[in-house]
């Protein structure tokens, strides 16, 4: 009971550790599963959606897919369940011939999030292969003088299965003269040897038939057999001896086909047929037997097909040298393949955007790349870079993944499309390189307002224009693209003489043409100022304004109008208005007005103004004369003016600049702005006599006549 409890506790702890390990690997972007080989297509491998916390409805929206290295896709993602399933039947022995642990790797790419998760699937072995011998019929020749206890190596069986399902033991049956001994090789492999348990006699038996059986550890176990025929021959004193127990050679992977890689040599001191040595494979894998050819006569090992370091880096097999008496010796051959920089780096685009908005923040992932080089060492070390001066940079992700991210914000108005070249170069000498081009279109964002072609607009429009006449056209352009660059025009709100601006002019929304909606009258509106707004089609929309000045040009569209005398209405009787005929007396002088009440008042008004003006001048003159006389009297009393000629003084007749008569021209219309009052200087005349000549004496004011 206690033992059962302890076993249950160990199983629980193992399960807990397995769950913790799975959670830790999922957190670091890697999942591990295992599946037996030879499972049918569509078999369950693991619940990827659950382990990564992905919601099932969002799997198709996010563009989730499975990508495997190589040309064969062994796994797929079930879209409805989120399960990882097998896409092909998997044969472990075909994929991992000489590897103890067979592992397949794939990636789950979430394109919508530009995320990648590594998945490691271990392919576990099943006992689907029985041990087999390269030759099922083995011929041995032994001398009848061979001493009991002698051992002879036998061909080994091969089982491609691994672990417990691989070859486990040998059994020998058929004759009491022989026994089976199994030796452990350097790598832990079992090497069967045929031991002579009892002396042979040709006269007793010339042939011995034996059966060698190889058994694996499967349940049920599988077996393979080989029949051994031992021929007893006359005495053969000496066996062949190899010059080396082990032949080791290193060859580059690009060595030409047909080249001799190594030659094994064995000698036999016997003469005749007993001294003639031939070579054959003692133990060799199926793969190695297809690559290397052993010349039975010379012992030369030549290359039958091209080597590939990435497929195999080392090959080991045993060769046997036997003479005519069937005595033999064995030697080990190790061929190591060295890497040559013969593989260019491979760039795989796992996920990529075809377009990106221009306002995407710096660091936005636009592509997910997988880069690998099948070479090893420096030849397999890959350096990636971007060609040209582009606003992108490479960011190393986990493993062999790189992300292409934006290095700064983009501007579609400067560059609308990018062809980003990703270049990968290895560390070979000379380096090999490859490239991949990412085509990326920059999507427009409404970040530019419309710009008018002019800072301000002005136009001249003659009055009395026709309604609907084109005044001018404003034009604005938007550097954006598509709907964001579509410009529409409209008038800003305003009023003219109390009426809405829209009742005077209108603007065509698509073309920006400005039209006059009514006929303008210069006498009413001489200038019109307005604002036109250009607005793009973005969301939200951007706009700009421009001022427009419209000048109305005057035309001669108003005839003069006679205000007085008023015209007589049609059919009016005498005295109801002016008939167009005026009667003047015969004695009228030139310049006399026609009679009329309005004319009389005009004459009286002009006369009154003239009289007032003359009176003002006379008053001013009197004041100045009075002042002058006072100064003269003061000067006479002081004697300061004695001896001054009388001609230096001017009498009243010298004042002549201010006293003038004036004629007036008056023009009155119904429009007070056009009425005029003009004084004509050319018609004035002096009202005072001119100053007398200087030779005539002039009497001073206040001086008495001597007569």
From TrEMBL:
Residues 1-29 form the signal peptide. One of its GO terms (molecular function) is calcium ion binding. It comes from Falcunculus frontatus. The chain crosses the membrane at residues 601-623. One of its GO terms (cellular component) is plasma membrane. GO terms for biological process: homophilic cell adhesion via plasma membrane adhesion molecules. It is a single-pass membrane protein. It is found in: Membrane. Residues 34-133, 134-242, 243-347, 355-452, 453-562 form the Cadherin domain. Keywords: Calcium, Cell adhesion, Glycoprotein, Membrane, Repeat, Signal, Transmembrane, Transmembrane helix. This is PCDG7 protein. The lineage of its organism: Eukaryota, Metazoa, Chordata, Craniata, Vertebrata. PANTHER family: CADHERIN-87A (PTHR24028), PROTOCADHERIN GAMMA-A3 (PTHR24028:SF234). It comes from the Eukaryota.
């Amino acid at each position: 009971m206690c033992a059962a409890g302890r076993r249950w506790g160990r199983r629980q702890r193992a399960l807990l550790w397995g769950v913790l390990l799975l959670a830790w690997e999922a957190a670091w972007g890697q999942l591990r599963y295992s599946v037996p080989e030879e499972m049918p297509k569509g078999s369950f491998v693991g619940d990827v959606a659950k382990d990564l916390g992905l919601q099932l409805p969002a799997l198709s929206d996010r563009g989730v897919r499975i990508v495997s290295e190589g040309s064969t896709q062994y796994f797929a993602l079930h879209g409805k369940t989120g399960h990882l399933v097998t896409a092909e039947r998997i044969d472990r022995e075909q994929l991992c011939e000489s590897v103890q642990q067979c592992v397949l790797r794939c990636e789950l790419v979430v394109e919508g999030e530009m995320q990648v998760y590594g998945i490691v699937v271990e392919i576990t072995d099943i006992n689907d292969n029985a041990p087999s011998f390269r030759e099922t019929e083995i011929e041995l020749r032994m001398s009848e003088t061979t001493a009991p206890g002698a051992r002879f190596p036998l061909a080994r069986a091969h089982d491609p299965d691994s672990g417990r399902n691989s070859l486990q033991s040998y059994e020998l049956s058929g004759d009491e003269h022989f026994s089976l001994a199994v030796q452990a090789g350097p790598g832990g492999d079992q090497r069967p040897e045929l031991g002579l348990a009892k002396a042979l006699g040709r006269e007793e038996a010339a042939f011995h038939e034996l059966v060698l059986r190889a058994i694996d550890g499967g349940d049920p176990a599988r077996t393979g057999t080989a029949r051994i025929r031992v021929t007893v021959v006359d005495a053969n004193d000496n066996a062949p001896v190899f010059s080396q127990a082990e032949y080791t050679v290193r060859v580059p992977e690009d060595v030409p086909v047909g080249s001799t890689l190594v030659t094994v040599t064995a000698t036999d001191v016997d003469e005749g047929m007993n001294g003639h040595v031939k070579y054959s494979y003692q133990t060799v894998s199926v793969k190695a037997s297809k690559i290397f050819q052993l010349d039975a006569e010379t012992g030369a090992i030549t290359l039958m097909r091209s080597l590939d370091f990435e497929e195999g880096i080392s090959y080991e097999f045993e060769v046997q040298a036997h003479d005519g008496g069937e005595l033999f010796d064995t030697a080990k051959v190790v061929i190591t393949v060295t890497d040559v920089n013969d593989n260019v780096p491979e760039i795989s685009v796992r996920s990529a955007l075809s377009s990106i908005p221009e306002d995407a923040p710096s660091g936005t992932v636009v592509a997910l790349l997988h880069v690998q080089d099948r070479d090893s060492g420096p030849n397999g070390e890959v350096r990636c870079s971007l060609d040209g001066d582009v606003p992108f940079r490479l960011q190393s992700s986990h493993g062999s993944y790189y992300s292409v991210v934006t290095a700064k914000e983009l501007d579609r108005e400067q560059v609308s499309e990018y062809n980003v070249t990703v270049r990968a170069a290895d560390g070979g000498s000379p380096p090999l390189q490859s490239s991949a081009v990412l085509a990326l279109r920059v999507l427009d964002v409404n970040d530019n307002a419309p710009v008018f072609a002019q800072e301000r607009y002005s136009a001249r429009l003659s009055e009395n224009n026709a309604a609907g006449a084109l005044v001018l056209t404003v034009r604005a352009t938007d550097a954006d693209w598509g709907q964001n660059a579509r410009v529409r025009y409209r008038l800003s709100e305003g009023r003219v003489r109390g009426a809405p601006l829209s009742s005077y002019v209108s603007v065509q929304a698509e073309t920006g043409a400005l039209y006059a909606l009514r006929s303008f009258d210069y006498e009413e509106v001489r200038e019109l100022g307005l604002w036109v707004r250009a607005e793009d089609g973005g969301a939200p929309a951007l706009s700009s304004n421009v001022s427009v000045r419209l000048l109305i040009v005057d035309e001669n569209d108003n005839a003069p109008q006679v205000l007085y005398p008023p015209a007589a209405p049609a059919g009016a009787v005498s005295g109801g208005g002016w008939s167009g005929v005026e009667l003047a007396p015969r004695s009228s002088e030139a310049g006399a007005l026609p009679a009329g009440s309005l004319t009389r008042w005009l004459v009286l008004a002009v006369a009154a103004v003239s009289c007032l003006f003359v009176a003002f001048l006379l008053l001013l003159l009197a004041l100045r004369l009075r002042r002058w006389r006072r100064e003269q009297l003061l000067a006479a009393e002081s004697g300061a003016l004695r001896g001054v000629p009388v001609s230096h003084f001017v009498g009243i007749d010298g004042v002549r600049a201010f006293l003038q008569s004036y004629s007036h021209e008056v023009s009155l219309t119904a429009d007070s702005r056009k009425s005029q009052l003009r004084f004509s200087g050319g018609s004035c005349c002096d009202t005072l006599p001119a100053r007398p000549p200087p030779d005539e004496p002039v009497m001073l004011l206040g001086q008495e006549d001597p007569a």
